[in-house]
Write a structure and sequence with these properties.
Layout: H1 11-18, H2 26-42, H3 50-94, H4 98-119
């Protein structure tokens, strides 16, 4: 059973453990360093096989193909928008300003009066 009384620790034992890094004494510290070195030696870099590399390349190529298709659609849309803008630009150049329209309207009214006066 677990006792609910606080554990009594002598001042010397606590001081001895606190002298090392993270409350470890020197022996514990050395053993942890040895274990870490063993773990570092045991880890090896994974080398991929030919088939694995080819499958990774194939999946990357599929992704690149999707992006290039989307890019092609974007370029087509931009070309279409550019064509529309040039059409609008040329249409605006052909339009007449309000002042010019008023002058033309007055001229046609004068010509109509002249034509109607000669017919009558």
């Amino acid at each position: 059973m677990i006792s609910k009384e606080p554990m009594m620790v002598s001042w010397q034992s606590w001081r001895r453990k606190s002298e090392g890094n993270c409350f470890f004494d020197r022996k514990e510290k050395k053993s942890k360093i040895k274990n870490m070195k063993k773990q570092a030696k045991n880890t090896t870099k994974k080398a991929y096989g030919f088939g694995e590399v080819m499958s990774m390349l194939e999946s990357m190529n599929d992704g690149i193909a999707v992006v290039s298709e989307q890019y092609g659609d974007v370029v087509r849309r931009l070309d279409q928008i550019q064509d529309d803008l040039t059409d609008i630009k040329h249409d605006l150049k052909r339009k007449v300003s309000y002042d010019e329209f008023a002058k033309l309207e007055n001229r046609t009214i004068k010509l109509e009066k002249l034509v109607f006066s000669k017919l009558a």
